[in-house]
Amino acid sequence: MRNYSSLLVLVLILIIVLNLVRASSDESKVHVVYLGEKQHDDPEFVTESHHQMLLSLLGSKADAHDSMVYSYRHGFSGFAAKLTDSQAKKLADSPEVVHVMADSFYELATTRTWDYLGLSAANPINLLNDTNMGDQVIIGFIDTGVWPESESFNDNGVGPIPSHWKGGCEPGEKFISTNCNRKLIGAKYFINGFLAENKGFNSTESRDYISARDFIGHGTHTSSIAGGSFVPNISYKGLSGGNLRGGAPRARVAIYKACWYVDQLGAVACSSSDILKAMDEAMHDGVNVLSLSLGAQIPLYPETDLRDRIATGAFHAVAKGIIVVCAGGNSGPAAQTVLNTAPWILTVAATTLDRSFPTPITLGNRKVILSQALYTGQELGFTSLVYPEIAGNTNETFSGVCERLDLNPNRTMAGKVVLCFTTNTLFSAVSRAASYVKAAGGLGVIVARNPGYNLTPCRDDFPCVAIDYELGTDVLLYIRSTRSPVVKIQLSRTHVGQPVGTKVATFSSRGPNSISPAILKPDIGAPGVSILAATSPDSNSSVGGFDILAGTSMAAPVIAGVVALLKALHPNWSPAAFRSAIVTTAWRTDPFGEQIFAEGSSRKVADPFDYGGGIVNPEKASDPGLIYDMGTQDYILYLCSAGYNDSAISQLVGKVTVCSNLKPSVLDVNLPSITIPNLKDEVTLTRTVTNVGLADSVYKVVVEPPLGIRVAVTPETLVFNSKTNSVPFTVRVSTTHKINTGFFFGSLMWTDSIHNVTIPVSVRTQLLQNYYDEN
């Protein structure tokens, strides 16, 4: 199973290199000129106004044409152009211009999945079949492209293209319009921003395709997870797979390639100007759901800072009724690492499935240890086992650290299985250890690492297995107890269901939100570990056009697929309604009723900062009973409550926006969660719920207060009828703690005995901070 954490590090290296090689301020660089709300509905008129602005600045039509990179003319008005710093400053001083900013780069952040989530195609009565498998819903993906020949994009049984679709398939290198069909209905690529910032990039020598075709496989994988068609009898290296499909197998897929593979660095780069143009085109084309498995780096830009192109584009997309789903990032288990935190974005954490790949290893004393691996080569019979360490007087260097195995003399490892230990959380440490052992003539490697860290498959099916430190220490003690230690490594197997438990993945980025702590992020958890889906045959780990990958990149399209099904069932819901339905109905135990743990050091019971409302429960989300709804004006009120000034808010919104003198409370933002990061004595907040179930309904409140926190709800009963479908309520929260605390967690539920509409409650007592604020 390959994980994109190592890829993200390479992308970060690329960003650093790109920044180092940028020339002086007199050299042209790509700048994004944001003009705010469109002043005309004709896209050609909008584009012409952009050219006129450049003509006035540069003095000639030819220079204006050469300077223009993109015209943003659908969701908002703006353009990307090659400008010197002085030219950019002149534009920034123009009264028509809201903001000018330099370009930047972003990173790249299925069989069992859907049965696990209760969406088995074999069940005739479930959300999957009630919605005709998402037919007529269009999911857009901004990623590395698509491999259109993959069986996951066959259009067998798929009806006509939705009438509201305005997009198409753009020809390019090894991509023609007939590569699209009734399933893959759109494919475009955006490279101008990347090329303008990387003048040394040789498109003719690049292994990536200058088209929507996917080289690295990431985009093919994510899009097939959400919307892939049925593909029968898929397995991976002999491991059990079964029938493969996406979450909404009859939804339509539209690809917007904005991420490019750079051969020299073995990394992927996504220019923010390309991403913004892709989002602009997706809004025009008519996508219903937009999925982005991309993210920036901590520290994050504020939501009103237009350098956060994803938040900016998402704001305008949501204003048009498009649900925007984003990966939460792969920097876990550290706190405050979650990305894509704007409240109008649906942010996704990654969890495991109830599936594992146990690989038995047998020691010479006949003790059997279950390791984890994806090893399907030949069983390795009893073979000499070694842990490299100094024995007696010697001047030679020995190391049992996985990253330093190359320091050992080859004879130490030749013909043997090597045990090593690593504290490195990156998966490259494991593959590097395997390469060192193989180069020295070794026959296998046992990697002892922190529990929960995933193992990358080893090239050429080299025996490569993972165990935790406790089991690694057991193996080491065995080695030291005998003159001739040996080990046998058997083939990996697939185990599904009990006793395998669900966990939040170690790598999944965690809350609290570093930009606005009162806004709970992530919103929801979904499977993102050991996800089998389509990929590009060019991918190093592709097996028959399929691959098993891990990351919040894989979890986000799971939610995008679920949202597509819900959109087919509830076409008139707002983006906030879908988020509310998903969050308030989520599983807080796994499907077997067991507690969900969060992997890390050390493992703990998962809380809202690990997985938001819980793990997505698609069936329950289709009938949530009540929703916490929001619209564009609510998001503007949030920005006012968060303390952003009128100018910053106006920049984002694209028109003059003035906050009221009476500043609203950020705690009153109508989210399906309550997060109070700095409670001193007592606070009262409000929420409003809207009935989307039976007109005549009565709900009663059930509160599980966080430890040491009092929670009182008024009224305690909500009554809905044909004339009243939205009802506000207040929540009074007070603390009994006498000292500063960490966060404690509880819940608030409205129930009518059929629906349990539950939101997480997270409260931290901060007496000392409030003391200094007041003094």
UniProtKB/TrEMBL annotation:
Fetch the Pfam families from UniProt.
fn3_6 (PF17766), Inhibitor_I9 (PF05922), PA (PF02225), Peptidase_S8 (PF00082)
User: So what family is this one in?
Assistant: Belongs to the peptidase S8 family.
Q: Where is the active site?
A: 143 (charge relay system), 218 (charge relay system), 553 (charge relay system)
UniProt KW Glycoprotein keyword: yes
What name has this protein been given in UniProt? Answer: Subtilisin-like protease SBT3.5
Q: Which residues form the PA domain?
A: 402-473
Residue span, Subtilisin-like protease fibronectin type-III domain: 668-763
In its keyword annotation, does this UniProt entry include Hydrolase? yes
Under PANTHER family, the record lists: PROPROTEIN CONVERTASE SUBTILISIN/KEXIN (PTHR10795)
Q: Which SUPFAM superfamilies match?
A: Subtilisin-like
Identify the residues that the record assigns to the Inhibitor I9 domain, covering every copy. 31-108
Per UniProt, which keywords does this protein have?
Glycoprotein, Hydrolase, Protease, Serine protease, Signal
Which residues constitute the signal peptide according to the record?
1-23
Q: Where is the Peptidase S8/S53 domain?
A: 134-589
